[in-house]
Amino acid sequence: MAAAALLAAGCAGTGGVPTTDVTATLPLPAPDAPGDEAHSPQADEAPPAGPLAGLTVVIDPGHNGGNADAPEEINRQVPAGPGTKSCDTVGAETAEGYPEHEFTWDLSQRVRDRLEAEGARVVLTRQDDTGVGPCVNERAEIGNDAGADAAISLHADGAPAGYRGFHVIAPGEVAGYTEDIVEPSMRLAEDVRDRFAELSGQPPAGYAGEDGIDVRTDLGGLNMSTVPKVFLEVGNMGDPTDAGHLADEAWRDRAAAGVAAGVADYLRRE
Ligand SMILES: [Zn+2]
């Protein structure tokens, strides 16, 4: 695949760029919900003992800062379920030049800090924002090897301006691969959707999935996972409104609170 195609495709989590529909008039919390008052009691009542003690979460910050300079490495084909996929992609970026890999790295650390504060063991799939990869299958294997109770891959989309909102991607059934994770992953997807929408104020995408959840069978990061896993496409970097949110540190902190609360809700109930 040519570098230009990778850039145009934007996010690894995104199969096709939408061409129809959309006007994200959505029945969800108003954007820019007030700060602390928007937090639910559950999110703030984590006892110091650590309600998530003994549980492991793997957070996968999508893409990496060195990918753009390593096309041969990231374009090589890797196992992605029944077929193969490129190792990774460059990722999307905003019109202002804020790259997806930098966004996912920042957000992942914020989510990690929150989950660790609740007692969880958190493993990130990469340790900095300057390397190449790891490939999508390796990102899944890190979750498998960690014995993760939940895994989440964080991304932002690269669709055209005018397409707004977030969506959670859950694995569909792929024979021989995902049968064991489809059901728990959907429960994880619903918890992340609910709490992320609540605490970030971000509307569910009008261009992908339904009610904020999209089921896909083509993502290596999901197909190769043996632990409950979802992707979250936090917003669309190609849309000026979403891009403004993503680039705003205070918004990212609310977004992280939503992701962490959703994962925590799932872990507490499973
Ligand atoms: Zn991505």
TrEMBL record:
One of its GO terms (molecular function) is N-acetylmuramoyl-L-alanine amidase activity. One of its GO terms (cellular component) is outer membrane-bounded periplasmic space. Residues 140-264 form the MurNAc-LAA domain. The keyword Hydrolase applies. Pfam families: Amidase_3. Gene3D superfamilies: Zn-dependent exopeptidases. One of its GO terms (biological process) is peptidoglycan catabolic process. Keywords: Hydrolase. It comes from the Bacteria. SUPFAM superfamilies: Zn-dependent exopeptidases. Residues 22-91 are annotated as: Disordered. This is N-acetylmuramoyl-L-alanine amidase.
